[in-house]
Every structure is written in C-alpha cells, then in structure tokens.
Amino acid sequence: MEGYTIKTLTQFIIERQAEFPYATGEFTRLLYHMGIAAKVVNKKVNKAGLVDILGLAGDVNVQGEEQKKLDVFANWRFIQSLKSSGECCGVASEENQEIITFDDDLSLDGNYIVSMDPLDGSSNIDVNVSIGTIFSIYRRISPRGTKAVLEDFLQPGSKQVCAGYIIYGSSTMLVYTTGHGVYGFTLDPSIGEFCLSHYDIKTPEDGPFYSINEGNYAKMPRGIQQYIKYCQVEDKSTGRPYSARYIGSLVSDFHRNLLKGGVFLYPETAAAPNGKLRLIYECNPIAFLAESAGGKASTGSERILDIKPTSLHQRVPFIVGSKNMVERVEEKLTEYPSNGH
Ligand code: AHM
Ligand code: MG
C-alpha cells in the first residue's frame, strides 16, 4: 500500500511520550521492557506443544491452585524484565503471596510499580486455547529512593497510568491504554516486533455477545439469572437473543467483546461470595481498558475503578464490556435484589 509504514510499539510509545506531563522517557522504557518479556513468553507459549514445558510445576500459588510450568516461567520472565528496566521499584503478581521489591539503586529510584497476572487462563494452556498476560502500572506513592511498600499497590484503579494485556492467540497482540485511547499491536513474527494494527479502539455500545460461566447459574444472584434470561429472549429491536461466547480465559473473552461488542460477567456465586477474579491485576487493568475504549466496568453496583483495594489478592464481582449492556446488568441487579443466592 502506498504510504504505508510499519509503526512498532517502541516507536509509537516514544511518539506518545508527550502525553505525560514532565515525561522523561522512564515510562517508555518500562513499557518497552514489558514488550521484550512478552516476546520471550510468546516464544515459549508457541513452543509449548513441542517441549516439555507443559504440565504442573509442582508449586501451589497463593490462590491454592497448582501452578503450570509456563506460569512459573512467565512470572519469572516479566519480573526479570521489569527489574532490568530500572524504572520499576516493585511488582505484585498473582503467583506471589507478597509484593516483590527491587532493591538495587536504580530500581529503588524507579517511579513505577507493576501489578500483573503473568499468564491468565492457565487451565487452557494444555488444550491450545488463547491465554494472556494482564498488567497494570501505577506511579508509586512511597518516596523514590526507598523500597516499594504495600500501599503503592493498594491504589484505586482510577490511579492507573497504564494498563494492558498480551493475548497469545492465533496471532499475538499487545493492547494497552494510558487513558488516552486504546491501541493494539500485532506481533509480526518475521521481524519480531509488535506493530500497530488497531488504532484508537472504540468498543460498540451494544453487542451481540454475553460471556458467563452458565454452569454456575443455580448459585448466581437473581439479578444475574434474570439478565441471562433477558439475553436469551427474542427481540429484533435489540438484536436478541444474544450469542453466548465463553472461553474461560478472561483476556480472550474480553478481547473479543472489546472488538465486537458484548458483556463479560463473573458475578459472585454462593460458593464464591466475592466472585473469582482479582481486583488488582485482573479487574482493574481490564476495567481501565474498557472505559478508555468507551465501555464500562462494574461490580454490579459500583464502578470497579473507584474501589480502594484492601488486600493484594482481593476478589470482586466483575461485569465489563459494552456500556449499554453493563448498564442493563446493573438495572437487573437493582430490579431483582439478591436473595442471598
Ligand atoms: P486463572 O487466573 O487461575 O487463570 O483464573 C482466571 C480465569 C479467567 O481467565 C477466566 O475468566 C476465569 O478464570 C474462568 O473461570 P471459570 O472456569 O470458573 O469459568
Ligand atoms: Mg488469572
């Protein structure tokens, strides 16, 4: 195509540096290092079927789930990359009970902390279904030059300076926002670079998909049950019945709905009174992306990004996606108050 130029992630973030008041390139370096780790993890994910990296690593993570080997690798790879960026003073990960602080002089002076789920949807690894890395970046609140502290990680999602995910799918993509638009980069394996492919993503206000684990139906709040029934009713004016689409891999389910329009729900259930997904490194980054694309994210009664976290691995009910669809779920929850399941 005449005039067509490839723009790599690195070129793009350098150009966008000006969005940051007093930008010094620190944040650019941090995101660049996330991109490097993503490429290495992508290689491993691609090779997973070929080498003995599948299967359990033996450890049990802080959620009481067995860790797969690739989870362990991805966790280590992202942590190392963030450490070597010199811009990050600490990391919180789904795979680690406590925060990790970097104590070398360069990192102590770093202005940012990162919370992440290094490989989400890991139960899908051995069946060749898309999985993802989710990340969230904040400015620290503790003084530079000192060790990062838990409070740095317990900031509400509205304070995020950047959030994104990498989806390891039929192609690998990195999608991120700094609150000024959502941008998607597809990894071109021939040059080993993430190249701008989705400029300023806007999610439709309504969509054709609802995504929920309906196996939990009997244990869901009444409002959610009513919403599912609503999705299934025929009404040509609203495009219903909606199609059910549920992969069981948050990044993949969200990515599809972001581009095509839809709503993803992981509500509280009788067995999991706060839902399953974790506020800090799953819900907040996805909520920031959703809002930056014109969508919404809610617990059903509260904006996700307004929640002040009280603990690192806190879970919250999560409803995210097209604005009108999330609002309709909220209406159903108000109309049919919970009966205590
Ligand atoms: P994980 O962090 O252990 O991989 O679990 C999170 C995943 C999400 O990707 C997905 O949305 C959800 O768990 C699916 O849960 P369920 O199998 O209960 O439907
Ligand atoms: Mg996860």
Description of the structure:
The protein has nine helices and 15 strands. It is α+β, with helices and mostly antiparallel strands and 341 residues long. It has two domains: 9-198, Fructose-1,6-Bisphosphatase, Chain A, domain 1 (2-Layer Sandwich), CATH 3.30.540.10; 209-335, D-Maltodextrin-Binding Protein, domain 2. The strands form three sheets. Strands 4-3-5-6-7-8-9-10 form an eight-stranded mixed beta sheet, sandwiched between helices. A five-stranded mixed beta sheet has the order 12-11-13-15-14, with helices on both faces. It has a two-stranded antiparallel sheet with strand order 1-2. α2 (26-47) packs antiparallel against α3 (69-85) and α6 crosses α9 (323-335). The longest helix is centred in the N-terminal third of the chain and has 22 residues, at 26-47. The radius of gyration is 20 Å and the shape is globular. It starts with 8 loop residues before the first helix and ends in a 6-residue tail after the last helix. The structure holds 2,5-anhydro-1,6-di-O-phosphono-D-mannitol and magnesium ion (MG). The site of 2,5-anhydro-1,6-di-O-phosphono-D-mannitol has 11 residues, from β5.
